[in-house]
Structure formats: C-alpha cells, structure tokens
C-alpha cells in the first residue's frame, strides 16, 4: 500500500517541526521524516531572533531586520513572517516561555558568565534577567564541572551587570559521580520529591547571604521543574532561576517535548528514518522521497515538500574536497571553487562558510545554478537556507521559526 500525504517535511529541528505544524494548520495531511531526534537537546533553549548586526548589540530585532542584506532569510520572508513564527512558537510553548510581551531582546546570563540577547527564554530563567538590578547568588555543584559558579559570577561582574553577584559551590545530595549526566541531577530532584529538594536547599542556605535571587545550573528537574524551583524558592525565601547550559540541555529537552506534544495534537506523522533519494515526475516536480527501511528504499509520496535538514552543523549542508552540496535533493549550494576562499585566516573575522546554503526565491523555493527553480513543489526552511551567519548574528532559531512557518503554510496551502 502506497504511503501518501499532502506534505512531507524532511528534517526534525525547529524549522522542520514548525513547518509541519504550519502545514497541518492549513488542513493538509503531513508527514515529518527525520533521521534522528531533534537537535534541541543540544541547544540552550534560548530563542534568538537577531542579537547582533555588524557586531553591534541589537535592542529591538524588528527595527534591524529591514537593514539586512537582500539574500538574508529574513529579507526573503519579511518581518511579518518572523512575527508569525514567534506566534506559533508561543502557541506551542505556552507558559513554558517568557518574552512575548515585548519586541525588545532580553539579556540572559549564560553558564560561562556572558550576557546573551534573546527574544524568548524559558520561564525557569526569568528571574535571572541581567537587566534586573537585584543582587544574585549563583550556585554550582562540586560534581558538575560544566558550571563554575564563582567564575561565572566573575565574568558577569566584568560585563558590568547592574547588580552584585557572587558564586558558590556546594555538594549535591547523593553525591553523583563527576561524569554523571545532567539528567541524573534532574531526575533526583524530580523523583525524590521534598526530601531531595530540602537537602539541597539546606546546603545552599549555608552559603546564601540573603540575596533576593539564586541561580542554579539548568538541571532543576525535567518533568517537575516548576515544582522544584518553587520548593527551593520557598525554602530560601528568594526567587530561583536556572542558568542556560551547553549540551546536553534540560531546557532544550523540555522544549523538544513541547514540540512533540504539539505534533501529536496536530496529527503529524513522524518517521524517524533517513531519506535516501527522491523521485520526480520528470517535469520539474517531486513526487516522493525514498525512506530507508530494513535495507530497502520505500517511497513516501506527497504533493508538496519542505527541506529543513539544517546547515553545516546539522549535516543539511555537506562538504568534501569536491565542493559543498545539499545531500537530500541535490540542490545547488553556491560557493567559491577555491576552498581557501571558504574562510579567512583571522579566526574572529567575517567567515564566508557560515553563510553557505541553498539560495531561495521569495517563496522559499531553492534555485539551481542558472537561477531557475529546482523543483516547483519544494521549499526550504531553517539553516539549510544560505545568507545568514546564525552564530554571529544570534538569529538561528528566529530564522528557523520564520522560514519554517512560511514554508509550511505555503506547502500546505498548495495542496488544498
């Protein structure tokens, strides 16, 4: 029996999941095909729209989007698509996130003591805003080397935050191994209810000097994180917040869980298998992707397709000695023939390679080497689209939301 849907989305990150939800919202039947779990569990959980432009900190990303180059993904979809993508994100996350009340970026401290601009942030981090002038205590755990609280506090003071901040290190109840996964800390606070939380609060009380805010590494529970923070806040008589961490990330896992619930509720079918080829009608349209299953390549048919496999980091864009290419649909990726022109010698310079990706028209359809359309019924979304340096701009999640929402809506509408 043939597997048929209105829309197939290839890629399971924020762009792919957003595209799938947007397509389903048009009434289309949608299948999301991804070879692995979302990369969200490796992300901080912060949602960046545009934090920097020309190395300058951006207060309001919406004021700066209009000044971006014409090949930037935001310039392709427009400001309203960014707002639409954020609105869909807000609908998925509900009370899990904050920041929707303003266009301005918030400033959040990170585990290294830097201050990061972001448009949306977990509710668990809300009391830690760097714009808050109340003093703060950062608490680290002896066995969790990824968060050095005294060093992070030193870095925040050097960044001239408008509050006094101290760092202290305590032992975690139960003394996890130094190489324990962060989920072990979270599960201990989830599963042992009041006893474990009270023991942790008692240890923090010994170093707490009455600061009205107390920050912990982002390991305060996975399933019951709100209850964990409330228990610690009550015991310490202080607002408790989590400091976003590097991978693996509990806020990222929580966000992934919220998206998975939304996909189920929207009726999106999720297939966790790699795509290994495609079929066309020979007249400029895709008809199917070939999904690897038990050693066979099984065709999955659809009327419209969205490519959302990620960029160089997510392997949605690949490179070798022969050049740079997009491996799923063989879409054209413009790049210099000389590999030495892919980068500049200055490690802090403006590098060309982060902007590599497929070139799209204003409807997000990938263009071929001659400027024509690769496939009439294929759109691209997220970091597979070229033209942006997501790390330097702090724009990655925002681009994924905006282009994912626009691509999914257009793909779904084409099938109705």
UniProtKB/TrEMBL annotation:
Keywords of this entry: Flavoprotein, FMN, Oxidoreductase
GO MF annotations in UniProt: glycerol-3-phosphate dehydrogenase (quinone) activity
Annotated InterPro entries: FAD-dep_OxRdtase_2_FAD-bd, FAD-oxidoreductase_2, FAD/NAD-bd_sf, G3P_DH_GlpB_su
Domain FAD-dependent oxidoreductase 2 FAD-binding: 6-399
CC per GO annotation: glycerol-3-phosphate dehydrogenase (FAD) complex
NCBIfam families: glycerol3P_GlpB (TIGR03378), PRK05329.1-5 (NF003722)
PANTHER family: ANAEROBIC GLYCEROL-3-PHOSPHATE DEHYDROGENASE SUBUNIT B, FUMARATE REDUCTASE
Protein name as it appears in the record: Glycerol-3-phosphate dehydrogenase subunit B
């Amino acid at each position: 029996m043939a597997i048929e849907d209105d829309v197939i989305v290839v890629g399971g990150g924020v762009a792919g999941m957003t595209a799938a939800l947007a397509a389903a919202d048009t009434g289309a039947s949608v299948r999301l095909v991804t070879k692995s779990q979302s990369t969200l569990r490796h992300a901080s959980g912060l949602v960046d729209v545009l934090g920097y432009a020309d190395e300058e900190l951006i207060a309001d990303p919406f004021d700066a989007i209009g000044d971006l180059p014409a090949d930037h993904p935001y310039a392709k979809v427009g400001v309203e698509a960014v707002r639409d993508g954020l609105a869909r994100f807000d609908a998925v996350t509900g009370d899990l996130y904050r920041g929707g009340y303003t266009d301005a970026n918030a400033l959040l401290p990170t585990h290294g003591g830097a201050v990061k601009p972001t448009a949306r942030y977990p509710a668990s981090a809300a009391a830690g805003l760097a714009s808050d002038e109340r003093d703060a205590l950062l608490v680290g755990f002896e066995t969790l080397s990824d968060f050095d609280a005294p060093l992070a506090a030193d870095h925040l003071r050097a960044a001239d935050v408008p509050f006094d901040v101290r760092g202290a290190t305590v032992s975690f109840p139960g003394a996890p191994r130094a190489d324990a996964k962060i989920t072990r800390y979270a599960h201990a606070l989830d599963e042992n209810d009041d006893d474990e939380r009270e023991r942790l609060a008692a240890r923090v009380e010994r170093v707490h000097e009455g600061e009205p805010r107390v920050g912990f590494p982002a390991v305060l529970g996975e399933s019951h994180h709100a209850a964990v923070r409330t228990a610690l806040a009550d015991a310490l008589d202080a607002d408790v917040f989590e400091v976003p961490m590097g991978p693996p990330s509990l806020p990222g896992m929580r966000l992934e869980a919220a998206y998975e619930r939304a996909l189920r509720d929207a009726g999106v079918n999720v297939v966790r298998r790699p795509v290994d080829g495609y079929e066309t009608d020979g007249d400029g349209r895709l008809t199917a992707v070939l999904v690897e299953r038990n050693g066979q390549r099984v065709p999955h048919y659809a009327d419209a397709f969205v490519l959302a496999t990620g960029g160089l980091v997510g392997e949605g864009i690949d490179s070798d000695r022969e050049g740079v290419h997009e491996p799923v649909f063989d879409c054209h990726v413009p790049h210099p023939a000389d590999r030495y022109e892919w980068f500049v010698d200055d490690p802090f310079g403006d590098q060309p390679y982060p902007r590599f990706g497929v070139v799209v028209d204003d409807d997000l359809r990938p263009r071929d080497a001659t400027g024509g359309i690769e496939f009439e019924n294929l759109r691209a979304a997220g970091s597979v689209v070229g033209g942006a340096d997501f790390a330097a701009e702090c724009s990655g999640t925002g681009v994924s939301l905006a282009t994912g929402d626009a691509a999914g809506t257009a793909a779904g509408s084409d099938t109705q």
